[in-house]
Amino acid sequence: MNSPHLLVSALTAMLSLRALASSLPLTPPMGWNSWNHFQVNITDAIVRAQAEAMVSSGMRDAGYVYINIDDGWQGSRAADGTIQPNERFPDMAALADFLHAKGLKLGLYSSPGTKTCAGYTGSFGHEEQDARTYAAWGVDYLKYDLCSYNDEVVNKLTTPAERLDAIREAYAKMHRALRQTGRPIFYSLCQYGLNYVWRWGASVGGNSWRTTGDIGDSYAAMAAIGFGQAGLSRYASPGHWNDPDMLEVGNGGMTAEEYRTHMSLWALLAAPLLAGNDLTKMNAETIALLTNREVIAIDQDPAGVQGDRFSAEGPYEIWVKPLADGSKAIGIFNRQDTWTRGEVIPVDLRPLGFPSGAHVRDVWKHTDLGRREIIEATVPPHGCVLLRVRA
Ligand code: GLA
User: Fold this and answer.
1) Are 222 and 151 within one domain?
2) Does residue 212 sit in the same domain as residue 344?
3) Same domain membership, residue 231 and residue 112
4) pLDDT confidence of residue 170
């Protein structure tokens, strides 16, 4: 550095890079992802239709903005190595423009391996080039899925420490490449929660990291993942989220009661809310489940504290999430499989931080329940009651 002028411009450039990087949202990302409903059967037209539906259904105005194309968009590489979309996505930059004009954002998916999980082209050896291409297209979110990197690199190493280092370096490498573009791109790690990723996901640049294998559209699959998040809350903070996988709400495999449990758990977990259904075919019940503002406010609370299990007695669980205004979200769950009449679950608010009782609101029913010291919630099997409680 040989002149004060150069020093000033270098500092200005660094500060503006930091400003760009920090313009990523600090609350959990909300949007839609193609995988749960469409798998690889996606096209530019399908994605545009989802975006239109995200706006017309009111989802965008409720906070859902990312339109994330999962596996299946990639074609081959051009002679100079540039990744090209396949014939189903004729012009990715034009698609990004279309989304941006609606106030939405575009997400893409790749892998540190040569192949993605579905066998499409991965980023191995082309990380910087791919990051530059994504930035030039106007991409705002990248899901980076370990997949073939395991067989190609990780499993050839001998010790667990070497294998962990290789995985961490693969993620850090793409993070550096994304950062160098200067474009704020939300970075979503997907390696199925292996190697205690919640302990190091943020240190390799992750804004979120999958904590589990893939979700399925059944109560059993959803509940195993959702309730299995107990103990992970201390690893989340604003801009750095545990990701228990995308939503199945509206895909048809669960009852409305079970989908309400799904949304309630994900909100308590401060999880990314990425709808995984066909947004062009939603009934009123699905829209209501996805757009309940009071539930979304719990997920998106600015304190960014993940909730956690307070108690489990047999099939009855209580989960608590502290909120920025001093109130708490409390989820009361009945994990029983069989229908009786619904179980009365007593919840004493005093040991939950409300020694003289609290004002209680049912956020699904949008109803105030008055001041209470003890709540007796009637909760159906597989169901829940979600409350917002303030002193
Ligand atoms: C893995 C991921 C899924 C999805 C598929 C795509 O299974 O965990 O979320 O991205 O790959 O092939």
Assistant:
1) yes
2) no
3) yes
4) 98
Nearest ligand 1 atom to the CA of 39 is 6
CA of residue 149 to ligand 1 center, whole Å? 14
Q: Is the CB of 70 under 6 A from ligand 1?
A: yes
Q: Which 3-state string (H, E, C) describes the chain? A: CCCHHHHHHHHHHHHHHHHHHCCCCCCCCEEEECHHHHCCCCCHHHHHHHHHHHHHCCHHHHCCCEEECCCCCEEEECCCCCEEECCCCCCHHHHHHHHHHCCCEEEEEECCCCECCCCCECCCCCHHHHHHHHHHHCCCEEEEECCCHHHHCHHHCCCHHHHHHHHHHHHHHHHHHHHHHCCCCEEEEECCCHHHHHHHCHHHCCCEEECCCCCCCCHHHHHHHHHCCCCCHHHCECCEEEECCCCCCCCCCCCHHHHHHHHHHHHHCCCCEEECCCHHHCCHHHHHHHHCHHHHHHHCCCCCCCCEEEEEECCEEEEEEECCCCCEEEEEEECCCCCCCCEEEEEECHHHCCCCCEEEEECCCCEEEEEECEEEEEECCCCEEEEEEEC
Positions in the chain whose pLDDT score sits under 70? 1-22, 340
What domain range is 169 assigned to?
25-299
For the whole model, what pTM was predicted? 0.94
Q: What pLDDT is recorded for position 205? A: 98
Q: Note whether 288 and 318 are same-domain residues.
A: no
Domain containing residue 103: CATH number: 3.20.20.70
**pLDDT at residue number 202:** 98
Tell me, yes or no, whether 120 and 265 share the same domain.
Answer: yes
| 249 and 336 share one domain | no
- Closest ligand 1 atom to residue 70 Cα is 10
- Whether residues 100 and 230 share a domain: the answer is yes
